[in-house]
Design a protein that fits this description.
Length: 298
């Protein structure tokens, strides 16, 4: 790297108290406890990956300010690089720890995947989790649906490049989704709260499961009550993302606009009303922002 740029960047990091500076020796140090939040392979993920959402906020500022005045919403096309940043984000919370921490939440799911079952990932984005599962479990059949054709094209190219014949991606609006008893397992990774109608989608995903099927749902772990979120990790970032992305995206589809911080209580109540049985709520140490539900179709 060009030294002049690195030096200027280091000045930013030092005055932000991220990097330490020893003036006498002209030496810069990234303390180990800061590196633990800011480098690849950090135990809680690299916070800089989540920080990229802030850059998107700047890019849509004028559009969202207009929405504040009119009450209208936005569309995915308004957000440059959204699916790329999202796949890096879920790469840390979902795909990286998928086999060691995420899938084991759902009882014997890994054994069933090994034996061969039908799986849907709803709102799959660029499909990182499905690509990993399809490679690991060749006896199972995987389908990924997402509203955005560009994300699906990226996912499908990944499946082709990996030569995976047990994986299919389809650009599909899940509003009004109505397949019945077609899957043994359904997943959604951070893909319900900003839908047009989250409650209808959860009901539909229940219907898409065969009896005994399991739904594994990752969504934002904040509370539905603002006063409970003062100590929730990165709550201000998440509410900010809600203002500029999740709320206007849902409103833009003519939806409820529940927002990023719709609350785990809201999600749990919707799962119950949809008829799910044996609902469990988990948190995972690597993923302090989200909550993980496991629920079954009786
Ligand atoms: C926060 S992203 C998560 C993407 C992916 N699951 C991941 O973890 O990287 C939410 C996804 O839901 C999709 N989505 C939103 N509304 C949808 C709809 N009505 N039908 C299908 N997908 C939708 C978006 O296109 C987006 O890819």
């Amino acid at each position: 790297m060009a030294e002049r740029y690195v030096q200027e960047w280091l000045a930013v990091m030092v005055t932000a108290r991220i990097v330490d500076y020893d003036a006498a020796g002209a030496r810069y140090t990234l303390p180990a406890e800061h590196a633990a939040c800011l480098t690849r392979g950090a135990p809680l993920g690299n916070l800089a990956v989540y920080g990229q959402h802030v850059a998107i906020m700047g890019a849509v500022q004028d559009r969202v300010l207009a929405c504040f005045e009119t009450g209208e919403g936005t569309a995915y096309g308004d957000y440059p690089c959204f699916h790329q940043i999202m796949s890096e984000d879920s790469g840390q919370t979902v795909t990286g720890p998928l086999f060691d921490a995420v899938l084991p939440l759902a009882g014997d799911l890994c054994e069933r995947l090994h034996a061969g079952i039908d799986v849907l990932d709803a709102g799959c984005g660029r499909g990182g989790a499905l690509l990993a599962m399809a490679e690991r479990y060749p006896n199972s059949r995987f389908v990924g649906y997402d509203l955005c054709a560009d994300a699906i094209a990226h996912a499908a190219a990944g499946a082709r490049a990996a030569g995976l014949a047990n994986l299919r991606f389809e650009a599909r609006d899940l509003t009004g989704y109505d397949e019945t008893a077609r899957f043994d397992a359904v997943t959604s990774f951070d893909a319900v709260h900003d839908q047009k109608d989250p409650e209808a989608l959860i009901r539909a995903l229940h219907g898409a499961l065969r009896p005994g099927g399991v739904y594994l749902m990752q969504d934002i772990g904040g509370s539905a009550r603002l006063e409970n979120n003062l100590d929730f990790p990165m709550a201000s970032l998440l509410y900010a993302i809600s203002c500029v992305h999740c709320t206007p995206i849902s409103l833009g589809q003519g939806g409820a606009g529940l927002g990023t911080m719709w609350g785990w209580e809201t999600a749990e109540a919707m799962l119950r009303r949809a008829g799910f049985a044996g609902i469990e709520r988990h948190t995972l140490p690597h993923d302090p922002m989200n909550v993980w539900f496991v629920a079954r179709r009786a």
